[in-house]
Amino acid sequence: MANVFGDKWSFTSFGESHGAAIGGILDGVPAGLHIDFDMIRKELERRAGKGNKGASPRAKNEPDEVEWLSGVMDGVTLGTPIAFLIRNKDARPEDYEWLKHTYRPGHADKTYEQKYGIRDWRGGGRASARETAGRVVAGCIAKQALRLKGIAIHAALIQVGAETDPDKFAETIAAYQKDGDSIGGIIECHISGVPAGTGEPIFNKLQAELAFAVMSINACKGFEYGTGFGGVTKPGSEINHLSGGIAGGIADGTDIVFRCVFKPTPSTPKAGVKGRHDACVATRAVPVVEAMTALALINLI
Amino acid sequence: MANVFGDKWSFTSFGESHGAAIGGILDGVPAGLHIDFDMIRKELERRAGKGNKGASPRAKNEPDEVEWLSGVMDGVTLGTPIAFLIRNKDARPEDYEWLKHTYRPGHADKTYEQKYGIRDWRGGGRASARETAGRVVAGCIAKQALRLKGIAIHAALIQVGAETDPDKFAETIAAYQKDGDSIGGIIECHISGVPAGTGEPIFNKLQAELAFAVMSINACKGFEYGTGFGGVTKPGSEINHLSGGIAGGIADGTDIVFRCVFKPTPSTPKAGVKGRHDACVATRAVPVVEAMTALALINLI
Amino acid sequence: MANVFGDKWSFTSFGESHGAAIGGILDGVPAGLHIDFDMIRKELERRAGKGNKGASPRAKNEPDEVEWLSGVMDGVTLGTPIAFLIRNKDARPEDYEWLKHTYRPGHADKTYEQKYGIRDWRGGGRASARETAGRVVAGCIAKQALRLKGIAIHAALIQVGAETDPDKFAETIAAYQKDGDSIGGIIECHISGVPAGTGEPIFNKLQAELAFAVMSINACKGFEYGTGFGGVTKPGSEINHLSGGIAGGIADGTDIVFRCVFKPTPSTPKAGVKGRHDACVATRAVPVVEAMTALALINLI
Amino acid sequence: MANVFGDKWSFTSFGESHGAAIGGILDGVPAGLHIDFDMIRKELERRAGKGNKGASPRAKNEPDEVEWLSGVMDGVTLGTPIAFLIRNKDARPEDYEWLKHTYRPGHADKTYEQKYGIRDWRGGGRASARETAGRVVAGCIAKQALRLKGIAIHAALIQVGAETDPDKFAETIAAYQKDGDSIGGIIECHISGVPAGTGEPIFNKLQAELAFAVMSINACKGFEYGTGFGGVTKPGSEINHLSGGIAGGIADGTDIVFRCVFKPTPSTPKAGVKGRHDACVATRAVPVVEAMTALALINLI
Predict the structure, then answer these.
(1) Which end of chain B is more exposed for a tag (fewer CB within 10 A), N or C?
(2) Which pTM value belongs to this model?
(3) Percentage of chain C surpassing pLDDT 70?
């Protein structure tokens, strides 16, 4: 079940980047939840990079309009599966005709063919970051349910390249873009309100579930929480009191903080790849990190 | 199913540190595999810290003898569930009587009680690192099956505190131990022979499955692969060719390398906790990292 | 995951009878399968009761046009999730306005409300037999894959009321319809070509999986295979050689035969329920039984 | 996960009939449940056929002593996995030496070998009815939890051969036993107290889950509920009000009644098979039917 996330609120994702549509089914949502469609629209715009200088033109030009197919009546969930789709309006397969016989370095073109013996070469097909739009829709519904339980998730970019001053991120990204290059970034995510006792003690530790959710996002290369990698140089006597909100895999009721790192996109003019791309994908990954965090949490609560 | 890892080779773990026994059931192992019991014994000794200066005396004194209950006939697997147990011979619950009403900082004592309303206070109960012995047994069988497919997993400690020279690790650990303190470490794991095409492209990306497996080990605070966190300062033009063995969640046939970080144990004389403990748990985590990596891989292949 | 069938070829179903659409996602289909769309169209017509005297007018008037959203390119599967939908063109919610405050006897109106506290009252909502159209689409793809492995599934009505002569079924049904009443039926299903060794020996016995699949169809009240209920009066010495194609939960390579019984629809003029209904739902259940059998088998092979 | 039943209270079964032990792990049991060990002992005796004339001598001579390995402290559940085993004390593999090269008709000897290429020939190995002792232990714990919610399960033999008078069952069985033959039986199970709303509407219908659970018992050839197969001759106008306790897959709060049929054992003196066997396995299946019903229900509630 390689396209399903979660077993309580289970989200099944579908869609190729330049096929008819992308979307998914969110099953397990209890009846009676009022959906805030406006919040979903805004999160999709955030993912699409509206207002970001370095975002791909396609993402900005193609408003992601969600078509709701089932599970919701008069804006209220029925307890039945919520199916939705987003049409690929701006699909221009002919732009990608050259990809039919080319494997872009750093992309999944070749591994898809190794796995399936066939691939949808049109714009990355299923491997395109476009797939994350469905995650954002499902994650928004999860966030809305979590909010009713007093749980808030807030992610933000804390580093771009070597730069750690958020006021200088736009400038840094613009420099790489101008240079026909790309750059990575680190996102930090704060979670408040998780009830003590959340998480499972052995394999499904809270941190393992969060890592799994976040590492499933394209271009994510690492995950750490609490004292993380930096804590390796500190003796126990100094850092023992820093739980990072989790002990033995179970939330202790305090805030949880984790960080994750996103690599630069490999498709750049400098790498000889023309087309519509992002100079810093980490920027647009922020709402996706929040969405996956929400889906991971709602499945544990 | 919070005590189950994997859905093809599925390992169900059981046992409290000072109950009758710990162990598990490994289901999904194909018939006809010859079990190398000697290798399992050695890996359990490695986990127990035999030969390590900083390891807990209990671990060293209590040889982990595996009792095989089912699924194996004349040393060959039957295709049926393999159940095994390891008795807790050296269980001394009375040593832990004081824990009945105490929550040790940095331990899961309190979160278990928050979750269940009850806990086995004897030596950490289910949260004890002793539980990982079962993982090592199951992981060994997975490793043996992987080896037949030409897949090798090799993990090693690459950093202890600020020290990165392996020849000086024993010395570094001894210094912290003498000081009644503890220290963290970083483990690096190399995997060779994974067939191109292994892994699933969306949620069950190979890196997400590895992160989930490794982050489920007690005291692990972070996971990274390929360029990891350090890669954030490098532009795409410099690091695009570094796949880390995975593209789009799918193995590309080259070696996979990941790193994970383990925090220092919180139970130290310096922290006022008497008893039998490890100065650097990362040392003993090495075979557990290999075991969990093997279990993650065998479920994807 | 209450709307998912199967864990290898997993089918997630969605849709309310009078919402925007019904449909599903079929995940796990290997890449490279050529879809026979014509066969799917025919099976949907069979389910819709085209040519049946006693079938509901809606079913016959509303051709079920499948819109393919993903997973298929140029008629060939990509190995990615296959999403599809069927629009509810003939949705006439106003016809069902009276159901808003009424629970029809023998229907799920009340239990849905007991479960969810809310329900889509429009024509049965999610409980409508219309949901089975999605099963037929998914089942057809499974059947096509099974056919390539030499496995054939053939179901047929073998009894309507007390009548066991197929030539007289239409007549029998017409009599009940004229009387404003309804009648049940028994379907027998033959499966050939299942490889010896298929099925799992303990809980997921082949017969248990088939029973689960078939008993999940609306109105099905019983399942039996091999000697079934009738065999109770026969001593072991007489029926021991009749395996029914399965021993110990595992196929023995011979043909498998099972039977299932469908109750009469409760919504009839005689019961005071106006609207568009079937005099013998068992007739239309035949392709659904085949579809569910195919989905059960493909998940075991 | 072919040896696992249920995903909330999940029971993993292990053990060959003449290996070291049989048993299992029951995961998902909430903390704080007081285990009634006496009831478990009695149910195991009932399964063993204590007091039954036609039961196998081994079953009666070998008291099934449960050894508890984890998950229980001072008779109270900890919320962690409950592992237990029953040693095969009376294992006499030499009695079965002749089976090494023989496939008994009507048994799973051959299909196991077809599936695995290897089999434990000692007394049926994993396919032996002895495996059901583990189900009874797990089912008893489920029953105890259900009882606290006001749910009661009561199964009884209602037919042996053509005989439907319970007072004459012992006599009927004795006649077949004397004749070196065997006979089947029908068990009826009544469930009271299931809360309205239990069950899932599409694939995991309450009746489908019950059928799956019961059809997974060795020798079970059919399942029916409510009006069952017999209802086929009755028009809707007569039987519409008979819900059988379930509508649309969801419990309506009234009693649920189902029946299942067990075939005669194929191993009889008449069939040329010497050894220790039962003349009517349906007798001993009664507590197993209750156990599987309890496990199915607890996973839905």
Answers:
(1) C
(2) 0.95
(3) 93
Question: Is residue C13 helix, strand or coil?
Answer: strand
Instruction: Using a CB–CB cutoff of 8 Å, tell me whether D111 touches chain C.
Output: yes
Asked if pLDDT for residue A257 goes beyond 90, the answer is yes
Asked which of B106-115, D47-56, D158-167 is least confident by mean pLDDT, the reply is D47-56
Give the contacts of D263 (CB within 8 A, at least 6 positions apart): C226, C227, C231, C236, C239, D184, D219, D221
* Helical spans, DSSP H, in C130-189: 132-148, 169-178
Who has greater pLDDT, A205 or D49?
Answer: A205
Q: Could you name the CATH architecture of B4-300?
A: 4-Layer Sandwich (3.60)
DSSP per residue, B44-108: HHHHHTTT-TTS-HHHHHS---EEE-SSEETTEE-SS-EEEEEE-TT--GGGGGGGGG---TTSS
In angstroms, the separation between the Cα of residue B30 and the nearest Cα of chain D is 8
Length of chain C: 301
C175 in reach of chain D (CB within 8 A):
no
Q: Single out the residue of C3, C28, C5 nearest to residue C213, CA to CA.
A: C5
- C38 C-beta neighbours (distance < 10 Å), count: 8
* A246/B184 Cα distance (integer angstroms): 18
- Indicate whether this complex's ipTM tops 0.90: yes
Lowest-confidence pick of A254-268, B110-124, B157-171: B110-124
Q: Cβ of D7 under 8 Å from any chain A Cβ? A: yes
Contact between chains at B247 and A200 (C-beta distance less than 8 A): no
Q: Using one digit for the tens of pLDDT, what is the confidence trace for C19-75?
A: 999 999 999 999 999 999 999 999 999 999 876 665 566 655 667 899 999 999 999
The position carrying tokens 């796990």 is: C28
The two three-digit tokens of residue C227, written as one number: 């000697």
Phi-psi region of C254 (alpha: psi -120 to 50; beta: other; left: phi over 0): beta
Domain ranges of chain A: 4-300
Q: What are the pLDDT digits (tens) for D117-161?
A: 887 777 778 888 899 999 999 999 999 999 999 999 999 999 999
- Rounded Cα distance between B115 and B101, Å, is 16
Contacts of A125 in chain C (CB under 8 A): 78, 80
Question: Which residue spans within D16-151 are E strands per DSSP?
Answer: 21-27, 66-68, 72-73, 76-77, 82-87
Contact call for B264 and A233, based on CB within 8 A: no
C-alpha B170/C-alpha A132 separation (Å) is: 46
Of C189, C148, C158, whose CA–CA distance to C291 is shortest? C189
* A108 interface with B at CB cutoff 8 Å: yes
> pLDDT tier at C277 (50, 70, 90 boundaries)?
low
- As a dihedral over the C-alpha atoms of residue D230, residue D232, residue D235, residue D240, rounded to 10 degrees, the angle is 70
Residue with tokens 């090693």: B156
Tell which wins on pLDDT, A183 or A106.
A183
